[in-house]
Write a structure and sequence with these properties.
This protein is of the alpha/beta class. The protein contains twelve helices and 15 strands. The chain is elongated and about 65 Å long. The two termini are about 35 Å apart. The model has no long low-confidence stretch (mean pLDDT about 95). Bound molecules: phosphoenolpyruvate and manganese (II) ion. Manganese (II) ion (MN) binds next to loops.
């Protein structure tokens, strides 16, 4: 349930309405829009539903709206204003489309520093790199662990790019928090509710990847776990879903972008690398994502994809990445956006 205050409602009126509602044992999240304030009610709203008409008569109240979706805090009904997630001076969710790029896995200091410099020069604003890797086989490279986190931090020091890295379980959260600017929740963990709560408690920016067999509603319910813990800095990432088509690693659900933008106020990111599994499809799919309305992209780039310890087949070389970046501004301009 949300209370929409009148455009000219005074601060005293807003506070009086908020405390009247909080006396019913629920919590209020206040959203300050350009013209109006909105009071989102979190918790058991049943007693308030019965009082709806009285609430509507309180001074300064314009209307009361019930949220029809099972996800509340994540819904656009709750917050019609686009959420902008700020990460060390980089804003995600505004006019500018933010590109995150880097290797699938951190493999060495040279590999990460070299990649960070190259992607920055081509226009990326955030550095990606996995230090702990969720691999299908237990015999595959599992990541460098804390040493990998230190390397990412060093690359940030050198280039100024904030760092995003995956957190696979809550035991590793404290150590990752020492280094990461954005916590990545991988597709395989989208419904790990204990982990979602744990990252929700941190207040740290979170990139939530869609499970490969999850619906958009399930994804928004997962975002709701993080938001319900008081962490509003959540981004949603479409990274392809599993379909019957074997040519690509996954199938990018391009309509997920406008659907998520319609249902939610949270920034939407596309990962064209895991969506396709093939480097030569990354640029065209990225352009499709930009034209569909993404707020950001997360792209795998490696100095020598053929030698990568993970996901080489879908990783762009530096020159492929910079060529792709050059092609994006015209697509972004066509839909009223800019590449950040
Ligand atoms: C990754 O980003 O390298 C990764 C493992 O992604 P996903 O969780 O989408 O498979
Ligand atoms: Mn990968």
């Amino acid at each position: 349930m949300v209370v929409i205050m009148k455009a000219g409602a005074s601060e005293e009126q807003i506070e009086a309405v908020a405390s009247h509602i909080e006396d019913r044992g629920v919590k209020i999240r206040r959203i300050v829009g350009e013209y109006q304030s909105i009071l989102g009610i979190v918790g058991d709203v049943a007693p308030l539903v019965a009082e709806r008409e009285q609430l509507e008569r309180l001074d300064g109240v314009e209307s009361i709206v019930r949220i029809s979706k099972p996800f509340k805090l994540a819904s656009r009904e709750f917050n019609p204003v686009d959420t902008i997630v700020s990460v060390n001076g980089v804003s995600i969710g505004g006019k500018e489309i933010v590109v995150m790029a880097g290797p699938c896995s951190v493999e060495s200091r040279e590999q990460v520093v070299e990649t960070a410099k190259a992607v920055k020069a081509a226009g990326a604003k955030i550095l990606r790199g996995g230090a702990y890797k969720p691999r299908t086989s237990p015999y595959s490279f599992q990541g460098m662990g804390e040493e990998g986190l230190r390397i990412l931090a060093e690359a940030r020091e050198i280039t100024g790019l904030p760092v995003i890295t995956e957190v696979m379980d809550q035991q590793m959260l404290p150590i990752i928090l020492e280094y990461a600017d954005i916590l990545q929740i991988g597709a395989r963990n989208m419904q790990n509710y204990t982990l979602l709560r744990a990252v929700g408690e941190t207040g740290h920016p979170v990139l939530l990847k869609r499970g490969m067999m999850s619906t958009l509603e399930e994804m928004l319910m997962s975002a709701e776990y993080i938001l319900a813990c008081g962490n509003e800095r959540v981004m949603l990432c479409e990274r392809g879903i599993r379909t019957f088509e074997p040519y690509t690693r996954n199938t990018l659900d391009i309509s997920a972008v406008p659907v998520l933008k319609e249902l939610s106020h949270l920034p939407v990111i596309v990962d064209p690398s895991h969506a396709t599994g093939r480097w030569n499809l990354v640029a065209p799919v990225t352009r499709a994502a930009v034209s569909a309305g993404v707020d950001g992209l997360i792209v795998e780039v490696h100095p020598q994809p053929a030698k990568a310890l993970s996901d080489g087949a879908q990783s762009l070389t530096f020159s492929n990445f910079s060529e792709m970046m050059t092609s994006l501004p015209v697509v972004a301009a066509a839909v009223g956006r800019r590449i950040g």
